[in-house]
């Protein structure tokens, strides 16, 4: 009997291609992250995430840094923190509202905003004005203090973007390009702030004006003269104040190396360095700061970064720098992806405002700059500064939504979520299917 064997199937050999798909999880993750960063919605979420984390970190550190001083002043360690939470709540609500305001309405609010800013800043010199530590830049209304210059920065950004966006054809001519942004509104607002002896805030405003003129395309030759005038003005104002000259001497000189360095103008500088040195690489732990116990002045305000370094160490301070870098990158993406001149200029203005103020504050704390007295945006204690900065974040979110393709992608996400949930079987339906 003959047995006939069935032929075995031959394996199909597929030719190898030169490009094989990435199978490594790390390669897939890097590719997906890179693809997401190139999407039009990336700037929106980067602004939202970086600003949100900075605000949350600020609340935690204000609670830690303000406890001892708050207990001495009010009998409760939570007074300053609860006030900051209330300010953050108001600012977040206004930021959410601002993020939904169409860009055309931001343009329409430009002129009323600058007029309101000028009126509030002028009110500082009336009976409503309040002086604090030599600066007269607050007004008191119904028991609440307000610093108009913080909202003046926002008004300057919106007004400058609206004016410069309409002057693209004459941007090469200094007088038509800068009027009325610089002459008269910008100069009057900065002058009122200087009249209140707040040089740090005035420097931020000047940086906003100069930076927006640069972003608008004003020829570089004009910035040589502007820089010389600005430097001369700062030098003149510094020379006319004994307190400012002492801060510059502390920064440039070696008087803080003496055994009595902790006295006089060196007190803040030396104790900020003590805080950072005590923190070392990994910090003393959240709440374990020593300098906040009556040693370092303004631990929850201008010098909150020193407390972050003391309690959270180098990872904490580097996290703050990284978050501001992410915010800067998001602003750059909005500027580079948008074709609307108002969006580009307003984004540049907010970026210069928040990042410039952060650089001044960080430079003062670590000793790279004289102590200027400006808060760390979104982190330091202070109602007016926090609310104004969060409104600025709301403006950034509104501008990010206007990037080509972003609004459509953001609207499509809830619809995609609903479609996904629609095909997921409920527990009851799944149970009936199993019984069958």
Automatic annotation (TrEMBL):
UniProt keyword Transmembrane helix present: yes
GO biological process, one term: cell division
Pathway listed: Cell wall biogenesis; peptidoglycan biosynthesis
Location in the cell: Cell membrane
Stated family: Belongs to the SEDS family. FtsW subfamily.
NCBIfam families named in the record: ftsW
Protein name: Probable peptidoglycan glycosyltransferase FtsW
Source species: Ornithinimicrobium pekingense
